[in-house]
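> call design_seq(struct)
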């Protein structure tokens, strides 16, 4: 089954998608899997796995369940890491704002 590609809105979705992608990459690395092997196990193309990890696309819920099936982990594992990454990113932006600097990117 081919996953549906939903492009990210650069202005509002990017931080969330980067946090999600970092969480997916961390879980894949913990399992010692390549993007190609995870893609095979999840039924997704390796390039699609890379795009998720880079925060370039907004995967559907179905795609996330395929991804976690390939990792053989519950979706909640991904959500926990996503929330941690999103909180760290928000804290970093708050620190930059407190110093009067502009956030990169």
């Amino acid at each position: 089954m081919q996953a549906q590609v939903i492009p990210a809105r650069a202005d509002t979705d990017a931080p969330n998608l980067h946090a999600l992608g970092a969480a997916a990459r961390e879980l894949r690395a913990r399992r010692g899997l390549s993007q190609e092997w995870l893609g095979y196990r999840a039924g997704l193309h390796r390039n699609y796995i890379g795009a998720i990890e880079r925060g370039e696309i907004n995967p559907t819920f179905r795609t996330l369940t395929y991804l976690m099936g390939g990792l053989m982990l519950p979706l909640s594992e991904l959500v926990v890491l996503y929330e941690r990454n999103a909180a760290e990113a928000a804290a970093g932006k708050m620190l930059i704002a407190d110093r009067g600097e502009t956030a990169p990117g």
